[in-house]
Amino acid sequence: MVSVTLDALDRGLLQVLQLDGRAAFSGIARQLGVSERTVARRYRRLCTLGLRIVGQPVPLRLGMTRWLLRIHCTPDAAGTIAEALARRPDTSWISLASGGTELYCAVTARTPHDRDALLLDKLPRTPRLVSVSAHCLLRLFTGITSTWYASGLPFGRAQETDVLLPAAELHEPVGPLTLDATDRALLAALAKDGRAGLPELAAATSRSTSSVQRHLDRLRADGALGFSVDFDPQHLGYQMMTHLWLRVAPGELSTIGTTLAAHPEIAFAAATTGPHNLVASGVFRGSDDLYHYLDHRVGSLPGIQAIETAPILREVKRLTPAVA
């Protein structure tokens, strides 16, 4: 990876975008105390380094179910299986871990039939696949991501939970929101560029800018749409990404999940089914940083009965919203 230098202004811009991916450059400039032109220039530079702002539908709000798959396969088949899963529109995040024999795959199922077609039909017939365990994500404690790895920007997230987490994720589930053709076209356009302007969105949806604005406002207000920042954490000095599987006392699940969500190292945390009832994804500067986090930050929390760590070796697919 080419070495780059990011200063406090770059980091500040990234942090503001985490709070609102569509924040206007003028508003960002006021928050950071610089000119709008400077913000636009820094944003373009970060984009050359891989920065993406991605609009994401919230599966729970749209009546869809999220699953995390742990797939064990033979070493010679891991890459092939991962690439095949990456081509599916219902997968959003795929990584290789545990010596290249274990895959993690985030899947969003629109219907029980779609779920069963993958879990009960397609995967069992895949050559050189050893085992599959499917874990239903029950409650998210961080972000709006339906794609497993949300942002990887581990600096100061004190205010993020209230800003990023839609009402559909924070409170008891409500009835699924019905989407029309304009909504679906708008979500597809925002998945490519979450900061696309109203004229571009109007062209993509064949609607007027005023109609697009109304649909956009409705989707955000109803908790069906959020925005995530995708930026390689290695540019920020974080060289290790790790999955954490935790077994937590049932009565402590919400407390532990909320606590992890407030940790700047944690990009994602969710309650899940299975022998480990809480799963998280964290970013760390290195192995010593991870050890300190496990020993001093997590290990001291009451209610945690066991922790399993699985460092990520390679990301095959990330931050790709499933089709709404």
TrEMBL record:
GO terms for cellular component: cytosol. GO terms for biological process: response to amino acid. It comes from the Bacteria. Residues 179-239 form the HTH asnC-type domain. It holds the Pfam family HTH_AsnC-type. GO terms for molecular function: sequence-specific DNA binding. Keywords: DNA-binding, Transcription, Transcription regulation. PROSITE patterns: HTH_ASNC_2 (PS50956). InterPro entries: AsnC-type_HTH_dom, Dimeric_a/b-barrel, Tscrpt_reg_AsnC-like, Tscrpt_reg_AsnC/Lrp_C, WH-like_DNA-bd_sf, WH_DNA-bd_sf. This is Lrp/AsnC family transcriptional regulator.
